Protein backbone atom coordinates (compact mmCIF):
# COMPACT_ATOMS: atom_id res chain seq x y z
CA UNK A 1 0.00 0.00 0.00
CA UNK A 2 1.23 3.48 -0.84
CA UNK A 3 -0.15 6.81 0.35
CA UNK A 4 0.40 10.05 -1.57
CA UNK A 5 0.64 12.89 0.93
CA UNK A 6 1.46 16.52 1.48
CA UNK A 7 2.88 16.66 5.03
CA UNK A 8 1.33 20.13 5.52
CA UNK A 9 -2.17 18.69 4.99
CA UNK A 10 -4.20 17.83 8.09
CA UNK A 11 -6.20 15.16 6.19
CA UNK A 12 -2.91 13.47 5.22
CA UNK A 13 -1.60 13.57 8.77
CA UNK A 14 -4.89 12.13 10.02
CA UNK A 15 -4.74 9.29 7.48
CA UNK A 16 -1.16 8.46 8.52
CA UNK A 17 -2.16 8.44 12.18
CA UNK A 18 -5.01 6.03 11.49
CA UNK A 19 -2.77 3.76 9.38
CA UNK A 20 -0.24 3.69 12.21
CA UNK A 21 -2.95 2.99 14.82
CA UNK A 22 -4.12 0.05 12.70
CA UNK A 23 -0.55 -1.27 12.33
CA UNK A 24 -0.71 -0.99 8.54
CA UNK A 25 2.32 -1.53 6.35
CA UNK A 26 2.62 1.30 3.84
CA UNK A 27 4.99 3.49 1.86
CA UNK A 28 4.74 7.28 1.97
CA UNK A 29 5.07 9.27 -1.24
CA UNK A 30 5.45 13.00 -0.80
CA UNK A 31 3.99 13.74 -4.19
CA UNK A 32 4.97 17.42 -4.22
CA UNK A 33 8.64 16.34 -4.08
CA UNK A 34 8.33 13.00 -5.91
CA UNK A 35 5.96 14.23 -8.59
CA UNK A 36 3.91 11.52 -10.32
CA UNK A 37 4.34 11.20 -14.06
CA UNK A 38 1.41 11.44 -16.43
CA UNK A 39 1.46 7.63 -16.72
CA UNK A 40 1.35 7.27 -12.93
CA UNK A 41 -1.59 9.69 -12.77
CA UNK A 42 -3.39 7.71 -15.49
CA UNK A 43 -2.74 4.52 -13.52
CA UNK A 44 -4.04 5.91 -10.22
CA UNK A 45 -7.11 7.32 -12.00
CA UNK A 46 -7.81 3.83 -13.35
CA UNK A 47 -7.40 2.38 -9.87
CA UNK A 48 -9.70 5.05 -8.42
CA UNK A 49 -12.27 4.69 -11.20
CA UNK A 50 -12.28 8.48 -11.53
CA UNK A 51 -11.50 11.15 -14.09
CA UNK A 52 -8.70 13.72 -13.62
CA UNK A 53 -11.13 16.56 -12.86
CA UNK A 54 -12.55 14.40 -10.04
CA UNK A 55 -9.21 14.54 -8.17
CA UNK A 56 -8.32 18.14 -9.00
CA UNK A 57 -8.20 20.75 -6.25
CA UNK A 58 -9.93 23.47 -8.23
CA UNK A 59 -9.75 25.99 -5.39
CA UNK A 60 -5.96 26.20 -5.54
CA UNK A 61 -4.30 29.34 -6.92
CA UNK A 62 -2.68 27.27 -9.71
CA UNK A 63 -6.13 26.07 -10.80
CA UNK A 64 -7.42 29.62 -11.00
CA UNK A 65 -4.32 30.75 -12.95
CA UNK A 66 -4.81 27.91 -15.43
CA UNK A 67 -8.53 28.67 -15.72
CA UNK A 68 -9.47 25.07 -14.89
CA UNK A 69 -13.00 26.14 -14.06
CA UNK A 70 -13.51 26.81 -17.76
CA UNK A 71 -11.96 23.55 -19.04
CA UNK A 72 -14.22 20.95 -20.59
CA UNK A 73 -14.72 17.80 -18.56
CA UNK A 74 -14.94 15.23 -21.32
CA UNK A 75 -12.91 12.46 -22.93
CA UNK A 76 -11.33 14.89 -25.39
CA UNK A 77 -9.99 17.03 -22.55
CA UNK A 78 -8.78 14.18 -20.32
CA UNK A 79 -5.12 14.36 -21.39
CA UNK A 80 -5.02 18.13 -20.89
CA UNK A 81 -6.19 17.64 -17.28
CA UNK A 82 -3.65 14.86 -16.68
CA UNK A 83 -0.85 17.07 -18.04
CA UNK A 84 -1.94 19.89 -15.72
CA UNK A 85 -1.87 17.56 -12.69
CA UNK A 86 1.62 16.33 -13.57
CA UNK A 87 2.88 19.89 -14.13
CA UNK A 88 1.15 21.25 -11.00
CA UNK A 89 1.06 18.41 -8.43
CA UNK A 90 -0.38 20.75 -5.78
CA UNK A 91 -3.64 20.37 -7.73
CA UNK A 92 -3.88 16.63 -6.94
CA UNK A 93 -6.43 15.80 -4.25
CA UNK A 94 -4.89 14.21 -1.18
CA UNK A 95 -4.30 11.82 0.38
CA UNK A 96 -4.60 9.00 -2.14
CA UNK A 97 -4.02 5.45 -0.97
CA UNK A 98 -3.25 2.74 -3.51
CA UNK A 99 -4.43 -0.56 -2.03
CA UNK A 100 -2.80 -3.94 -2.48
CA UNK A 101 -5.79 -5.28 -4.42
CA UNK A 102 -5.09 -2.89 -7.33
CA UNK A 103 -7.68 -0.28 -6.36
CA UNK A 104 -7.20 3.13 -4.77
CA UNK A 105 -9.17 5.59 -2.66
CA UNK A 106 -9.08 9.31 -2.00
CA UNK A 107 -8.66 8.96 1.77
CA UNK A 108 -10.04 12.24 3.11
CA UNK A 109 -12.10 10.52 5.81
CA UNK A 110 -11.38 7.82 8.40
CA UNK A 111 -14.00 5.71 6.63
CA UNK A 112 -12.07 5.92 3.33
CA UNK A 113 -8.79 5.02 5.06
CA UNK A 114 -10.45 1.98 6.65
CA UNK A 115 -11.85 1.04 3.23
CA UNK A 116 -8.31 1.06 1.81
CA UNK A 117 -7.09 -1.02 4.76
CA UNK A 118 -9.80 -3.58 4.07
CA UNK A 119 -8.64 -3.83 0.48
CA UNK A 120 -5.03 -4.41 1.53
CA UNK A 121 -5.53 -7.22 4.04
From TrEMBL:
Entry keywords, A to Z: Oxidoreductase
Name the coiled-coil region(s). none
Q: Name one GO molecular function term.
A: arsenate reductase (glutaredoxin) activity
Q: Does the keyword Oxidoreductase apply?
A: yes
Query: Which PROSITE patterns does this UniProt record tie to the protein?
Result: ARSC
- What Gene3D superfamilies has UniProt attached to this entry? Glutaredoxin
Domain of life according to the entry: Bacteria
Which PANTHER family does the record cross-reference, listed alphabetically?
ARSENATE REDUCTASE (PTHR30041:SF4)
Q: Which family does it belong to?
A: Belongs to the ArsC family.
What protein name applies here? Arsenate reductase
Amino acid sequence: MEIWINPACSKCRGALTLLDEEGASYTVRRYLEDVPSEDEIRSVLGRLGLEPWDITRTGEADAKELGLGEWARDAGSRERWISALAAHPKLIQRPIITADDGTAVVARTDEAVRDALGRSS
